[in-house]
Design goal:
By secondary structure, the protein is an alpha+beta fold. It contains 11 helices and 12 strands.
């Protein structure tokens, strides 16, 4: 591991002051330290933000719910408030990593996670995100890569499990930087590789993700994911659904996919197909088919189209019935 300086920040302003192009924020550190050991990331300075109280806690913000960026995955899973108001978020995080990692890893770290792509993670293979001229996954082993946005210069899939349900809930990300605090709709927080190959979000080098605010949700919601195995693994496909209802009919649907694109992916055609309809086996099947109409799988991951179709259908039925499938 490259030698680095270490700064303990006791406030957001101290963290912002010390962050820059050659520094990174350290919270749970469950992935960052591994990336540093593998020489994928080599910051000159680590700024420890774990002791900043403003980044902690789950609390009411009017009718909304505020979750600090340093709140651990375990704390979110243990929260009765999250369970009662935003069950799709807990469902998405239920099987994230292992219990030991969930005790350390934070919401902010999950949202800002770096790609799991094996070409990115191997310093001996070419990767555009690391400055090479090609994305080796395009013509290589791309079993776990994107099926949407495959015209991008990088075909990684965004690794965050928390992002799809939070986007479906219309959450906003709180960010502090040298220009002061601001809130960004989480849907606009993530960026495609063509916008900035070196990053997966809009954070500047001196920015700190401080919290997420989830507005009230009166609709029905659920998350369904498909993975290789039930033990520690990342989803092959994930669908988070929020249904705002007029009686038994859908007034508006929000469907966000994970594990299938370089950013959390809105299934706009599927959402539109549900307007004014009751959720049934037939309408859920039709919406799921529409969700994959724009999929453009790579040579080795055509199977993910069917997995995504299944995830959407089952998430819709789970949200409509209130039963986890």
């Amino acid at each position: 591991m490259k030698t680095f300086a270490y700064i303990h920040a006791d406030s957001i302003s101290t963290a912002v002051k010390n962050l820059g192009k050659d520094s990174l924020a350290l919270a749970g550190g469950t992935d960052l330290i591994n990336l540093m050991k593998d020489h994928i990331l080599e910051p000159g300075t680590l700024v420890n933000i774990k002791g900043i109280g403003e980044l902690d806690g789950i609390s009411a913000a009017g009718d909304s719910l505020r979750i600090g960026a340093n709140v651990t995955i375990t704390e979110i899973l243990d929260s009765a408030e999250v369970a009662s108001r935003f069950p799709a978020l807990q469902e998405a995080l239920y099987d994230v990593a292992t219990p030991q990692i969930r005790n350390m890893s934070t919401l902010g770290g999950n949202l800002c996670a770096r790609p799991r792509c094996w070409y990115y993670r191997n310093e001996n293979t070419p990767c555009r995100k690391r400055g090479d001229s090609i994305c080796a996954a395009v013509d290589g082993d791309n079993e776990l890569h994107a099926i949407y946005g495959t015209d991008q210069p990088c075909v990684m899939v965004h690794p965050s499990s928390a992002a799809p349900p939070l986007i479906a809930y219309r959450a906003r990300a709180g960010v502090a930087g040298k220009d002061g605090p601001r809130e960004i709709p989480l849907e606009r927080f993530f960026t495609m590789p063509s916008v900035d190959m070196s990053r997966e979000n809009v954070l500047k080098p001196d920015d700190v993700l401080t919290h997420v605010v989830i507005p009230p949700c009166t609709g029905r919601s659920a998350t369904y994911e498909v993975r290789h195995k039930e033990s520690h693994d990342w989803p092959l496909a994930l669908a988070s659904v929020v249904l705002e209802m007029d009686g038994r009919r859908v007034r508006q649907a929000r469907i966000v996919l994970g594990g299938v694109a370089p950013v959390p992916w809105r299934a706009a055609s599927a959402e539109a197909s549900l307007a004014g309809k009751e959720i049934s086996e037939l309408t859920a099947t039709d919406a799921a088919a529409r969700a994959v109409e724009d999929a453009r799988p790579l040579s080795g991951n055509k199977f993910k189209v069917q997995l995504t179709r299944t995830a959407v259908k089952r998430a819709l039925l789970a949200a409509a019935t209130g039963r986890r499938i």
